[in-house]
Design a protein that fits this description.
GO terms for molecular function: UDP-glucosyltransferase activity. Belongs to the UDP-glycosyltransferase family. Keywords: Transferase. The structure is a single chain. With about 375 residues, the protein is of the alpha/beta class. The chain folds into two domains: about 140 residues, Glycogen Phosphorylase B (Rossmann fold), CATH 3.40.50; about 190 residues, Rossmann fold. The strands form three sheets. It has a six-stranded parallel sheet with strand order 10-9-8-11-12-13, sandwiched between helices. It has a four-stranded parallel sheet with strand order 1-2-6-7. A three-stranded antiparallel sheet has the order 3-4-5, with no helix packed on it.
Length: about 375
């Protein structure tokens, strides 16, 4: 028997969530997009509901179209989104979530968005102008507010372990270090972690690698000794913004989570992309094909990539090393992409400054909610 996880989650979470919300007698509700029942609660309370989306406009649009019933499935089992701005979005079926589950989820999400007061998105118009305009112009939501990038503080870490790796970066030359992080949720097989470790070693590049604290992986025998002069593994929470902001970091090997992308953009660091699940494969297309600030670690056609990490073909150490050496070669792709991403970094700072697009949208959101409250009184 197949269980509808989304429906089960709502039945478990909604009663507690609703009790907490009602106890506060709010004037408005700003809710995670996946708490689809929040719109019903807001309607019953007679207050506006704003959904907050933690990924970008491009991803929202692409996933919306890719999950629709009329998305075309080509002969090579690639899903092509219906009419979409350039470039055309084509994603292998293996890189998409289970369609039957996510069509249910997306159906509920977009019904809620249409009914809600508005949508706030963690992006900024200078990064995704075309897609922000498209989302607003096609009437998917009543009001839209692009208020990003909302990031962790980039202040220097203060505890000893974090000070240690920032101090280590201080000893390296500008743009020489590869920072590797797959976030806190992505699962990677131990065999693949072995190949990544050996690839980092073979590249000869200095690296800082954040490994999930819960990960039980042990590096290949003798590896830590061989790389101790140029490699550091972090097994605690890594303050990514502070690391990426350091001038020694020249490339970010990332899983393409949206927060990680925004951190790289805000700090002006080009990316090597290695997506793992859900919207990350779509985010990769924005980074590489639209913005031109990243490059796939594994070339097209090299092997099967899958949202299911157990089905993802092993990327060999030689390919990892080759990709790093090519990307970070002086005058190579990394340098070209750094120029582009530094321009976006400037735009991201401007968006959050007084009078910037995100600051204006945030003020507009507050003013609209205040006006809605006054209209109810």
């Amino acid at each position: 028997m197949r269980i509808n996880i989304a429906a089960s989650t709502e039945s478990l979470m909604r009663p507690v969530h609703e009790t907490l919300v009602r106890a506060q007698s709010p004037d408005a509700i700003i809710t995670d997009l996946l708490f689809t029942w929040s719109a019903d609660i807001a309607d019953e309370l007679g207050v506006p509901c704003v959904t907050f989306h933690v990924t970008g406009a491009f991803s929202m649009l692409a996933m919306r179209h890719l999950m629709m019933e009329d998305a075309a499935i080509d002969g090579d089992d690639t899903v092509t989104a219906p009419p979409f701005p350039t470039p055309q979005i084509r994603v292998p079926r293996t890189e998409l979530p289970d369609l039957s589950i996510f069509r249910y989820v997306f159906g509920k999400v977009h019904s809620m968005q249409a009914a809600c007061f508005g949508l706030a998105v963690n992006t900024f118009s200078g990064l995704e102008q075309q897609y922000c305009d498209m989302y607003t112009g096609q009437g998917y939501v009543q009001r839209s507010y692009f208020v990003g990038p909302q990031l962790q503080s980039s202040e220097s870490p203060t505890d000893d372990s974090k000070s240690q790796y920032i101090g280590w970066l201080d000893t390296k030359s500008d743009h020489s270090v590869v920072y590797v992080s797959f976030g806190s949720c992505a699962l990677v097989s131990h065999a693949q972690l072995d190949q990544l470790a050996l690839g980092l070693e073979a590249s000869g590049k200095p690296f800082l690698w954040a490994v999930r604290a819960a990960e039980k992986w042990t590096p290949p025998k003798g590896w830590e000794k061989r790389v101790e002069d140029r490699g550091v593994i972090i097994r605690s929470w890594a303050q990514t913004t502070a690391i990426l902001a350091h001038p020694a970091v020249g490339a970010f090997l990332t899983h393409c989570g949206w927060n990680s992308i925004l951190e790289a953009v805000a700090t002006g660091v080009p990316m090597l992309t290695w997506p793992k699940f859900h919207d990350q494969f779509v985010n990769e297309r924005l980074i590489n094909d639209v913005l031109g600030i990243g490059h796939r670690l594994w070339p097209h056609g090299a092997g099967l990539r899958s949202e299911d990490y157990e089905k993802h073909e092993l990327i060999p150490a030689d390919d990892v090393a080759r990709a790093l050496l090519t990307f970070m070669h002086p005058g190579g792709p990394g340098d070209v992409m750094r120029t582009r991403v530094m321009d976006l970094a400037s735009k991201s700072h401007g968006a959050l400054a007084e009078g910037g697009s995100s600051q204006q949208d945030l003020h507009r959101l507050v003013n609209d909610l205040m006006a809605a409250k006054e209209g109810r009184n």
